Give the backbone structure.
Amino acid sequence: MSEIDEKEIRRRFEAISEFEAASEITARDLDRARERLTEQTSGQPTKQQRIWRTILKSRITKLAAAAVMIAGTMIGLHWLGDGSPAYGITEALELWKNAEIVHIKGWDFLHTGDDTQLQKFPFAIWYEKKSGRFKYWLPDSQGWPPVYTTETPRYRLHVSDGQYIMETGYRHSDSNSATPLVMFIKLSAFEQRLRIRTMKPFPAYMANLDQVKGFTKVGREQIKNKTVDIWEGVITSAGPFPIKKRIWLSPKTGEIVRIFTWIDAGENSIRWVALSDADTIEYNVVPPANCFNTDPPAGHKQMNTKETVVERELSDGGPAKFHSCIGFTLKDGSVIYGWHANNKPEESQAHLFTDLEPGGPLPNLPAKVVGLRPWPAAKGIILAGRHLTFTRKKGKFYEWGIYVSDENTPERNTFAGYEVISKYNFGPRPFFDGRPHSLGQDHELTINSEQEFDIWVRGAMAELSDDGKAPESIIYKNVLQLAEKIRNTFNK
């Protein structure tokens, strides 16, 4: 088949979206879509373009995101392609999924500018699922791949006792000195329950390796008196760098005992550089005394205290005026996604939320999330956004869109998350001090029943309402029927 042209890609996108493709799809999107569609018809995978970019994490308000990124790199919060069976264990990896406590420790590999001269530094992570407590102890680095600029790396500490999260970091000066800082985050009762529900030491694909293409068994050995299989795969992700992982796990229990990660640091060819080695993974072990202690460490300047910190709501996007709140994937593959966009918070948006109909166009906000894309997926699947409902709290309006595809979406546990497709209105792009890029992990849930819908979807809407109530019309059956109605209009 001849290469799929730009016109055809745009036609397919416009068929399920409320806006013209020319206003949103970039050249990179077109290249990716063309690759996906060509691969689908030819059966031949295409080489993904590598894009280098530096992500500096210096502000204290970015510490949580930095911790998630670092931990994700260590334990695999990226995705491994699409498709065909490669793993022979039929049972899910129930051991770590049901473990109350998981302890992960090992080594991060860092350098000062020359990635052929690596040094390793220890890290440690604890999860206690039943209480929502966790602890990250990680070397501080800048950039991506990680680089340290001092004689030895400083360390960041992130600890949660279930209600409070304590985060340490550094404020860097022009003289390369750094002031150690500590701040607290207080979670609402809903956020506390949400963290317990979403806390996972490993991403879902590790329980679904029979659906992962390119992940192969490369050996077997003894580790700590256990016979384990060794599996290896190259990861494609929504980020700029391909990742390779080697995972040691028991063929009898599914117990993961070690994960080694490399990053492709080559600009024009593949060059694997060691990134981390999680060489110890333990389940249901007793944490050390005071493991989840949130007392500020000595010598750190306090940005706030437990007594002065303002409780963080579900909607807290920090300084960003265009941000995600939470998302829910329903059993039919449709997604309910709550978000906020107002680049002029001093001005009311009430007039923009009048005359809206469920299943109709999204409100005409200065920015909006018009689509979601499972990443990566075997096809160029896009879930197009329609209005479902809205809520209001303390003068802020929250759009709850329903996102539906005219194609069969893959099972939720076979991909890592959703890429967010945004559109900006009203002439030149407004300044929002940030925007949503992806949906997944901590603030996205899979909903399989009416009971779960009432607890989580209606609960989240109530959390972002002045009266503490969800809109009465938003019930499980109605939403599924609306999604099917929207899907049928796409098919027509």
In short: The chain has two domains: 60-302, 314-491. The chain is about 15% helix and 35% strand. Helices lie at 6-14, 27-42, 63-75, 94-98, 189-198, 450-463, 476-491. The mean pLDDT is 78.
